[in-house]
Design goal:
This protein is α+β, with helices and mostly antiparallel strands. It has a single domain, classed as Metal Binding Protein, Guanine Nucleotide Exchange Factor, Chain A, CATH 2.170.150. Helices cover 26% and strands 24% of the residues. The protein contains 4 helices and 9 strands, in the order H-H-H-H-E-E-E-E-E-E-E-E-E. Strands 3-4-8-7-6-5 form a 6-stranded antiparallel beta sheet. Strands 2-1-9 form a 3-stranded antiparallel beta sheet, with no helix packed on it. The longest helix has 21 residues. It is globular.
């Protein structure tokens, strides 16, 4: 292989490798356009989920993990304007900035889902108490928990306390 061919190959490979690293960066949870909306259940092997998700996303979405309060994903969330929030695993629409509020808890909070059929609620006893777990109804990914009756001045008095790492933000189109 000649020197010019090698330079061309390197020039093409560098931007692609940077894009690959950027796509798996765990604290970058934004896209410019909405992901394709799944048309049915999304089922993958554990190995496929590990390949697709960052290690933090995998821990949260596939093993019901919880990110640290007031972490990088939450700081990003606070700065995000109008837009929609999708499942980081399957792309399903989950929440909207229209239902976003600052609960002061250190995790993204919403008072209602944007697309209720994409959000599944179930009883969770994992911490020695009864809670309501929130999962993606399309892929089964763990999102967080819902708390009721906490006295927030919202239309539902519910707090969907969601891990930022489980979400992908898509900004609203600019007029």
């Amino acid at each position: 292989m000649g020197m010019n061919a090698l330079r061309i190959l390197m020039a093409l490979a560098l931007p692609l490798s940077l894009l690959a690293c950027q796509a798996r960066e765990p604290n970058k949870h934004a896209m410019q356009t909405p992901p394709p909306e799944p048309t049915g259940p999304v089922v993958k092997t554990d190995a496929e989920w590990k390949q697709q998700l960052s290690s933090e996303q995998y821990r949260i979405l596939r093993h019901a993990g919880t990110e640290a309060a007031h972490g990088a994903a939450y700081e990003e969330f606070k700065k995000q304007g109008q837009g929609t929030y999708h499942c980081a695993a399957c792309g399903a629409l989950l929440f909207s900035s229209e239902q976003k509020f600052d609960s002061g808890c250190g995790w993204p909070s919403f008072y209602d889902p944007a697309k209720a059929q994409n959000v599944k609620l179930s009883t969770d006893y994992s911490m020695g108490t009864q809670r309501t777990e929130v999962t993606c109804a399309i892929c089964g990914g763990h999102l967080g928990h819902r708390f009721d009756g906490e006295g927030f001045n919202t239309p539902t008095d519910q707090r969907y306390c969601i891990n930022g790492g489980a979400l992908t933000f898509v900004p609203a189109p600019k007029p």
